[in-house]
Amino acid sequence: MDLKDYKNVWVFIETARGEVRNVGLELLNQGRVLAGANNEKLVAVIIGKDLDAAAKTVTAYGADEVILVEGEEYKDYNTDGYTNAMVKLSEKYKPAAILFGGTIQGRDLAPRISCRLKTGCTADCTDLAVNAETGDIEWTRPAFGGSIMATIVCSQTRPQVGTVRPGVFKKAQPDDSKTASIIREEIRTPAEEIRTKLVDFIKSAEEAGVKLEEAEIVVSGGRGLGKPENFAIIKELADVLGGAVGASRAAVDAGWISPLRQVGQTGKTVGPKIYFACGISGAVQHLAGMSSSKIIVAINKDPEAPIFDVADFGVVGDLFEVIPVLIEEFKKI
Ligand code: FAD
């Protein structure tokens, strides 16, 4: 393998029924930095059906080139079809790096593709940079239970592959006047090679409403809530603010709320404009998922709780007294 044959930074653009998910747009913004460091192109790769609108979106968000693979067999995400398409594309174009979101799709696809291409995969990254001397990507991720941040390089093989947590990078401002070259690749995956079939699409109640990773306001509850029914007060505050509900792992492990709501090292990474931490102590593993929030508001009855070290606004008090007042006041706005 001659590493010099491999060029450009690819971002796998995740779509849900044709709609581009935010994580791909966030990765385009950071991909621009990585590609720029090596004078390479930033390429968005989209697999699906009827992708013209998605191609327009990624162009506005800064892709230099867009590669589209369209077909009935790619209408809904399936592991076999998408792997086949991505592997064939990579073998043809030889990208230097492929970035995936650390989502259910990305976590499924990235390791498979890296295995087929006989290269490495760094999962669940929280930062990406380029080594100024070698041009290799430096992938940073928590290791040893979050006690260290490890920087990993894939120096011997290409492409460099990895998944990045949603919410770690910000999207660029879209610019509709931007243009990109669009390449349409005809790659077929025979039906018999696709071993799974989507029977039905049911939106889970937990996923209804504002998406946690994409919310501008997140209201999270922790063990301080005491019991599952008390999440109602968190939901009420989130609803009044048009935000999403989050939770600490302690609340999730207690079975009070779905794991889909967990924020933190082993949960989701969020970067909202305002993050409310209610009855959450502020363990390092929780902070790993929310510390990039613009404004952090902590409500905790323990003035020594570590969450106050990162909070912009702190209320020392009983959340059952403080939150109802907030709800009433926000209702007036
Ligand atoms: P606690 O630490 O018990 O804090 C509860 C807080 O509520 C206290 O500060 C208390 O003063 C306050 N409180 C109690 N009653 C009230 C009241 N009435 N009003 C106001 N305040 C009140 N944790 C995560 O959150 N996300 C993760 O992704 C995650 N991943 C982990 C991964 C690993 C490998 C490990 C080892 C741990 C992980 N954890 C994670 C767990 C983490 O270490 C903490 O145990 C967890 O975050 C604690 O949750 P908590 O703050 O809700 O509970």
TrEMBL record:
Domain spans labelled Electron transfer flavoprotein alpha/beta-subunit N-terminal: 9-198
SUPFAM superfamilies assigned to the protein according to its UniProt record, in alphabetical order: Adenine nucleotide alpha hydrolases-like (SSF52402), DHS-like NAD/FAD-binding domain (SSF52467)
Cofactor: FAD
Keyword Oxidoreductase: yes
Protein name: Caffeyl-CoA reductase-Etf complex subunit CarE
Protein origin, superkingdom: Bacteria
Binding site for FAD: 223, 248-249, 262-266, 279-286, 300
UniProt similarity note: Belongs to the ETF alpha-subunit/FixB family.
Single GO MF descriptor: oxidoreductase activity
Gene3D superfamilies: HUPs (3.40.50.620), TPP-binding domain (3.40.50.1220)
Keywords attached to this entry: FAD, Flavoprotein, Oxidoreductase
Enzyme Commission code: 1.3.1.108
InterPro entries: DHS-like_NAD/FAD-binding_dom, ETF_a/b_N, ETF_a/FixB, ETF_alpha_N, ETF_asu_C, Rossmann-like_a/b/a_fold
Record GO biological process: fatty acid beta-oxidation using acyl-CoA dehydrogenase
UniProt source species: Pelotomaculum propionicicum
Cofactor details (free text): Binds 1 FAD per dimer.
EC class: oxidoreductase
